[in-house]
Amino acid sequence: MKPEFIALAEIKEALPKPSLPEIAFVGRSNVGKSSLINTLLGQKIARTSSTPGRTQGLCFYRVKKNLIFVDFPGYGYAKTSKTLREQWSVLAEHYFQNRRTFRGTVWIYDLRRDPDALDQQMKEWLFHQQKPFYIALTKCDILGRGEWQKRLKLIAEGLGVSHKECILFSSKTKEGLKKLWNKIEK
Questions:
Q1: What angle do helix axes 117-129 and 145-159 make, rounded to 10 degrees?
Q2: Which site among 47, 71, 93, 163 is 20 to 30 Å from 58 CA-CA?
Q3: pLDDT digits (tens, 9 = 90+) for 131-178
Q4: 71, 121, 149 from 9: Cα distances, Å
Q5: How many domains does the chain divide into?
Q6: Statement: the pTM of the whole predicted model exceeds 0.85
């Protein structure tokens, strides 16, 4: 089955009717969420941009006969209006609390970035959902292989998560592609 765009929901009333299991994709703006989704699917379906903050609502993609990906707006982007950030927060809370087809989350995280208070808040929020989540550490191709495990350990410790929840990933080299798909399918 060829992946297809289903809907863009900017408000909770615009969410498509729940039907199939859904995997949410969250992360900071400009971390490579859309590139990761496109790499997983082997085609460009999610819009990519060098300008942060392009995802303006929840983007739903049917990716297999029995699976939907949900791409969330990036968090931490300062140039987005406070009103829009609040609207996204309400939409995200509604989705995670009420969506019966929600099964788990892929948290996309830049391997080069040290965890901060906003990342701690995201981790706590994900723990609160009581659904499985994995951290895809993107842009590993930018660092030398010798740095990967050191950065993975620093991030896992900084976030207080097991290194087993972290997957090194590169949209350019496809590092971690099979491993991430295996986690998603479980």
A1: 70
A2: 163
A3: 899 999 999 999 998 999 999 999 999 999 998 999 999 999 999 999
A4: 10, 24, 37
A5: 1
A6: yes
